[in-house]
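thread: overnight batch results

M.L. [08:02]
morning all. the overnight job finished for the chain we discussed friday. pasting input first so we're all looking at the same thing
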Amino acid sequence: MKHTDCSVYNPVKLFGTLVPLNRVCLLLVFFCSVNVLQTQTPDSSAIQEEDYSQYETVTFTDVSARRYCSPKILDQSPQRFISLAWDMQTPYSSLFSLPGTYSPDSKRGNEGESATAAYTGGFRFGANIPVVSRNNIVWQLGANVWDVRYNFKDLTVQEGAAGLTNILDERGLRTMGLNTTVFKPLGETTFLLFQASADLSGNYTLSDFQSLRYLRYSAAAVWGRRPHDRKQWGLGVSRTYRVGEMNYIPVVMFNYTTPNRRWGTEILFPARAHVRRTFNPRNLLLVGYELEGQSYRVEQLSTADQSWEIRRGELRARAEYQRQLSGFVWFTAQMGWRYDWSYNVDALGNDGRDFFRGFTGNQTYAMLNQLGSALYFNIGVHLVSP
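M.L. [08:03]
and the structure it wrote out:
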């Protein structure tokens, strides 16, 4: 028996005519497809062109519509949110005077101890986290921990010496602090910048320090302008311990990027000043200097009626290479020359209250100390802002 196709040989009656079943199916599919396409095609009569002339007379009074300047310029080195670094100096000579009374213009005190600092270094941790980040204000809070360890050799000690080499060798010096920064734009080209910090600095350990005796404050305020995306400058005043002792100094800010975006400056004078070379968005080099310092309370030298503090300040001429490792993770490597600005010791009252000597004060030092210059190295890994 021969096989037959039922769809062909079993026709249906359509509009009074016998039509094979397979052709009826094809017709149904065709009409359904046309209907679907028509429903998906937009009705051109329903589209109305927007009449923008109706907004020409509208005045915007919403504060959020104002434009504000940015806290950064093009190609500025990335801001660090979290940093972890190691700092180390090559060997240098050290000379500590006998305790006594020395005027600020004295060149050298009576020799008490001399030694070679075979090792000076330690880790550095810093964090700077945005709390508020809006167009009209940026507020950040931060923390820092710096640890400096010493290892002396070839020690020579005179009678009556204070024993500072042993104190530094056993405990070193450290700083823990909190800081805050507020950037307040006043418009498209002007801004205010405020910075403040509170640091606990001394040779304490976590188990024995008395916090208020080690506490020192610093602050700065700057008024500035940002005329375009490649330039930012400002003038202000600062209360600082960067050269060891408390001082009030003027501040000059000048951040700039050249039109070809290969060179620039990052300056907050006198604290630091650098020339920047940008090779590409992932690699840059800074060459310049930075002042570092703090006032460190040394408990072992203090007495019942006096608080002794090392006024540590140093000038670092350096080159710093910065490279993006992956995403927001950057690597930095510094190499430079550390020059001893100050390592003298002041004797404060038993309340530990500091005083202002400035550039012309005649308050005497309790010790006059000298450190030789040295090469230094610093490597770090940082989580930076976008």
